[in-house]
Amino acid sequence: MIVQRRAVTAVLAAAVLVLTAGCSSDDGGGAAGEDAGASPGRTAAQSSPSRPGAEETPPATGSVEVVRTVATGLESPWGLAPLPEGDLLVSSRDRATITRIDGENGEKTVLGEVPGVAPAGEGGLMGLALSPDHASDRMVYAYFTSASDNRIVRMLYDADEPAGEQLGAPDTVFRGIPKGVIHNGGRIAFGPDGMLYVGTGESGDTGLSQDRDSTGGKILRLTPDGEPAPGNPFPDSPVYSYGHRNVQGLAWDSRQRLFASEFGQNTWDELNAIKPGDNYGWPEAEGRSDDGAFHDPVEQWGTDVASPSGIAYAEGSVWMAGLRGARLWRVPLDGTEAAAEPQAFLTGEYGRLRTVVAAGEDRLWLVTSNSDGRGDPREGDDRILELRVR
């Protein structure tokens, strides 16, 4: 277990109100109005390194088909972890529960409530990930906001116990991530290397993003036990990249390159290709910058059409769920660059979209987010959808 080396001063409520004014970060209420088929202000892409044996560039245009509604009646769903046998685990941010969804009929079984979660504002029980050895150790990892910080725990999932009692006591593997009313990050995922990647936010204290001694406003890379992973860019540090505002999506492409989505403030939301040790600019830069010290995003969007949360990779593209934008974005990739203009799908059809997870070669699981206090819940909300994408 790693305790953050630097104590973070709590953000005063008044300062939070100032920072959230006009902020795209998971605020702004319900769906934006009109569809936007391309990102505003798109500029030429950065040069790409040579890519021997790279996959074929996907077509400029794609398609999305809603195959079925998997489950309905979910409250404040946030994280989603597919089980090997085809069922799904979903977290409730505000109820602090983890529920198993039958992948065939949508039947819901509450595994239990995670102790120590303190839901408030944008905090609560958020990201979920299965241990790389889940088949043998049955461990589930969760990222949540406690009374004092954001932290990562792991719990034994025992399906033989009665419903509501299937989660073992949480073992804290990493703590001390700054918490706030806003910008708590929350996405966790095990990478192709077996390490745990963590998207954090700066909790409303913008200076933390550039402070490499803080875990706020970062992507972290940890061992499954919560130690700084071998090969990290900064000695004895969990920090993998920095200069982030509020990372909420993590996904790898077919060549094991990491991408991340990030909330902007008033101007640009971002999709970034993550390079270890790089500085992504916040708060000095939002979106693309003329400053060569900062790594520019692969793509950027006006905040009214995005407010990105989860991302997934399928069919040569990154698929990005939009909260305020209430749409699913497709970004076809050529290496670590956008190969064509992004496309928007499902605009306004299902409201706010929180999480998207790959479900096979051309399938995605998509989680709506209309019952989190900022959406307009419809009959059946919130729901999980199965999509076919091209």
Mean pLDDT: 89
Q: Calculate the terminal CA-CA distance, rounded to whole Å.
A: 42 Å
The number of helical runs is 2
Judging from the principal axes of the Cα atoms, what is the shape?
globular
Structural class: mainly beta
| CATH uppermost class of the domain at 77-317 | Mainly Beta
What percent strand?
35-45%
Secondary-structure arrangement, i.e. CATH architecture of the domain at 77-317:
6 Propeller
Largest sheet: 5 strands, mixed
Return residue spans where pLDDT drops below 50 for at least 5 consecutive residues: 1-22, 27-54
Radius of gyration: 19 Å
The CATH homologous superfamily name of the domain at 77-317 equals TolB, C-terminal domain
Series of H and E elements = EHEEEEEEHEEEEEEEEEEEEEEEEEEE
Helix content: under 10%
Would you tell me which CATH topology of the domain at 77-317 applies? Neuraminidase
Number of strands: 26
Q: For the largest sheet, list the strands in their spatial order.
A: 1-10-9-8-7
